[in-house]
Amino acid sequence: MTYQETMKEWQEATLPADLENELKTMSNEEAEEAFYQDMAFGTAGMRGHMGVGTNHINVITVAKVTEALAQYIDAAGQAAKDRGVVIAFDSRHHSEEFAKEASQVLSAHGIKVYRFSSLRPTPELSFGVRHLKAFAGIMITASHNPKQDNGYKVYGEDGGQMIPEAVQAVIDARAAIKDPFHIEKDAAEKTVEVIDALVDDPYLAEVKTISVDKDLIAKEGSALKFVYSPLHGTGQYIGEKALQQAGFSNYTIVKEQAELDGDFPTVKKPNPEDPAALSLAIEYAKKEEADLVVATDPDADRMGAAVRLADGSYQVLSGNQIAALMVNYLLTAKKKTGELPDNGAIVTSIVSSRFAAEIAKSFGVSTFDVLTGFKYIAAMIDRFEEKKDYQYLFGFEESFGYLIKPFAHDKDAIQALVLFAEMAAFYKEKGLSFADGLNSLCEEFGYFEEKTIAYEFPGVNGAQEMADVMAKFRGQKLEEVAGHLVLATQDFANRTQYDRDGAEKEMPQPKANVLKYWLADGSWIALRPSGTEPKLKLYLGVVADSQASADEKLASYEKEMAAKVQG
């Protein structure tokens, strides 16, 4: 079916007034982008612009994908329907509306629904699925995306994002739905139970166990001074409760960013990966001479931070640096108390820094590399629990996602808030700053530096253009980059590593459209199309014996690889 034919079906349907009005004013180019496909499911469900059309998030597309999910649950049997679905939403425009839409579709199928009455973080949704022993979960959020976006994350019964096989079953069911405008809904919501304290209280009780050294917090928790910004999102509610119950009281909330507002008026992007998102919090910190700044994104699954330097300025940390500091603190504390297991393991993504892995190695702790997407970290946790061959200690992705304890099976910025504050107290007690701690680790393990560059491929032809770039790299053998030999090429699409000497070996990860190159100097380069946005991502990771050398090396790799990607 052409986009014009699909658009005509929408024009003939009865739509909500806002969608009908938007449809009337669309240009041909806008119409093609809005109707040429059903919105793709990626690494974490579907995510994109709100508005009219099959390729946008709206009540029609939310009802359609929920109907497909309901059919998948129906096929699993009555027990699955009785276990039900947990639904949560964030502060974005239409999030609560979409959550209710999903509830009514599921209720029409007689599927039990657990829904929060107000916004909650993504990690609490993940915990809620596990705690209530539900069959699935839905989180309405676009995470850290700009204000015009929203999204629909689907979770499996383990509390992790739904596995590929299950997602494909939902996608197939969605494709078979021919009339998305008359999906049955139960306006009375007969199977819907509003939860809140039912999950809040046990979640906060679990978060309380994150603290490694409660005596340290009792001693330094009130002396530590920091600033917290929830970036207009869900952290405002649960983050403060988590900090207070842990024993931290000397912190300031960024007042303007504690207001729940889907326009995110104080930031261009509500993304703690972007240093600009921390600017207002840093202004607060400078006035108060605070030790550090922490910020969580709108659905509180990512945390960013900045730390005070000796001259009174603030250094914004990368996600990889935060993870390295956390791993070092956790393993040091566990070793001190005799709780460091012989079979300990951390889990990270194939595009994250090797910094934390080197630190873990020094403690005799193994590192497992998985595909991008926290569902793969969750799957590894499940594997550890099933086989009992390794004990999970920490998981992270370079994109500011961390999980300390697996009572949630997704990245959890609320857990990270508590542990990061405790680490700051640890350094403060020693008369050191976070910057001192980071520099000490760099001196011991090397200066690791990473960078991610996202190339945008919007519009109807974007996916094909990205595919062409990936095909170009696969078609040419990359021998060297900026004068450094490529020792191995890993093609995750066929799960094969090709060594420079001609040897080939199978890789353990599932198939994925990713290329990764390992260089002779210990650096690495990776290319992958984003699973949630029309972007091709280039990842660069280097290690050197000084910061200046690392910066120089990173710049040279970026320059050469940018020319290859865009050439």
UniProtKB/TrEMBL annotation:
It is an enzyme of class 5 (isomerase). Keywords: Carbohydrate metabolism, Glucose metabolism, Isomerase, Magnesium, Metal-binding, Phosphoprotein. Pfam families: PGM_PMM_I, PGM_PMM_II, PGM_PMM_III, PGM_PMM_IV. The keyword DNA-binding does not apply. Its EC number is 5.4.2.2. PANTHER family: PHOSPHOGLUCOMUTASE 2B-RELATED, PHOSPHOMANNOMUTASE 45A. This is phosphoglucomutase (alpha-D-glucose-1,6-bisphosphate-dependent). It comes from Fructobacillus apis.
